[in-house]
Amino acid sequence: MTIGEQLSHVLPELFIAITSMVLLVIGVFIGDKRAREIGIAAVMVLILAQALTALGIENGQVILFDGAFTLDSYTRFAKIIVYIGAVFALLLSDKFMTREGLARFEYPILILLATLGMSIMVSATDLIALYMGIELQSLALYIMAAFNRDSRRSTEAGLKYFVLGALSSGVLLYGASLIYGFSGATSFAAIAEASGESNRVGLIFGLVFMISGLAFKISAAPFHMWTPDVYEGSPTPVTAFFAAAPKFAAMILFARLMVEAFGNVVADWRQVIILISILSMAIGAFSALRQTNIKRLMAYSSIGHMGYALMGIAANTQQGLTSVLIYMSIYMIMTIGIFACILAMRRPEGMAENLVDLNGLSRSQPGLAVMFTCLVLSLGGMPPFLGFFPKFFVFMAAVDAGLALLAIFGAIMSVISIFYYLSIVRNIWFRDPAPEFEPSMGLGVRLSAVIATLGITIGTIFLIAPLREMAGTAAAALF
Fold first, then answer.
1. Of 138, 358, 379, 459, which cross-links 455 as Cys (Cβ 3.0–4.6 Å)?
2. Residues contacting 122, CB < 8 A, separation 6+
3. Residues of 230-245 as b/e, b for ≥16 C-beta within 10 angstroms?
């Protein structure tokens, strides 16, 4: 395949990269006064990139650049979800950035660059491409965390994320170098062929380091220490972005690495994934019980949810991978909706982020109260909301793979986590009203909250069957 033919298969990535550079040059000349227009342009870029990805769908697998980059139904599914998450992140930030004095043209460009990194991540089938995608995404996210330069919390969040992120990248790179040293290859397919008895110990040693680095990217315990502080300190739309698309992309990459490169030695790494899953579910459930800041609570909730998703990877079956894709897709819908509701919590003195600020919301703003309640219950996995189904699917995948004890532990942790979700519902419906929030829901925030709420309620009837079918087709590409 010629270079031109290979480039024709990566048009979405090329389009995002070129338009990002063009928008950057335009922004330098027109300044921050037109930041909103650049944001709108960025949304259009992502929608067009999604259209290019969808139009490029074809049967089979296309391997590009000597095995470094692969296109199949798995990567196409992941890219479409990533682009959708990035679009909603931009919609959530529209009015907030203007109101907080953060409307700078660099922000939507950083989201585009982070999305480009995620797009490379989900298509990477080579250790070098994997690292390039992760670093391109991470460098943009470090800047976004500290985007509010006048806020001590934001700059502290950015610094913590950068230092710990650099450490995790070093651990990841060290693991990759060990794997290369013992296998003599960087492509996932070649590593799988080289994973024989003679070099098994060295490969597993390197894999442990790689798992540690990737666990940091998805904020799985015990590599979760950055998450609460970064979630709390970052501007709320940035936190929403962190919790949605990057987590999805990192989990997709994690699953592909384990299945394609190390599927032959599953018995050696399954126990590590199970341990990380158990720790994430337990730390997420118990630590969230003590939180009073809703963004920190969402951070620990996210840690717990990553533990549930890892159950599907531990299963190492097509059913397990299908459950991971469904879980992360629905988790992103719920997360965007929750943060849209959090963005509506504003008073004249600033954003309201504490749980007590939700007291009596049902009497002051009944519409927001209903949306918040539905989304919180769905996030907790309560039937009949959409959030019940992904947990059911990962539990079933774990049981079918002989991991019944892990599924039982997950069910127990899920019951414990319901307590702090119900505490939010209690504040909304059964407490005396706190001071009312000022009208602050811009069109993007309102649209995101409504779409997410409809998706996890009425959409349950229409979404779950086609999503399961698409996820099953995507997962089949790896088996």
1. 459
2. 74, 75, 78, 79, 82, 133, 249, 252, 253, 256
3. bbbbbbbbbbbbbbbb
SS3 at position 170? helix
Confidence (pTM): 0.94
**Three-state DSSP class for 64?**
strand
Tell me the torsion sign for CA atoms 172, 177, 181, 186: positive
Residue 207, burial from CB neighbour count under 10 angstroms (0-12, 13-18, 19+): buried
Instruction: Report the distance separating Cα 120 and Cα 408, nearest Å.
Output: 36
List the chain domain ranges: 3-476
Q: What is the DSSP letter of 386?
A: T
Q: What's the rounded Cα separation, in Å, for the pair 466 and 472?
A: 10
Torsion angle of the four alpha carbons 232, 227, 114, 245, in this order, in degrees rounded to the nearest 10: -90
d(CA 353, CA 350) in angstroms, rounded, equals 9
Which of 442, 438, 431 is closest to 356 using CA atoms?
A: 431
Q: What is the dihedral of CA 336, 337, 338, 342, to 10 degrees?
A: 90
Per DSSP, what are the bridge partners of residue 64? 69
Amino acid at 307: G
Tokens (6 digits) for 162: 């950068």
Nearest to 13 by CA among 177, 21, 143: 21
**What is the sign of the dihedral through the CA atoms of 330, 336, 337 and 338?**
positive
Q: Which of 219, 410, 249 is nearest to 314 (CA)?
A: 410
Q: How many alpha carbons fall within 13 Å on the CB side of residue 470?
A: 17
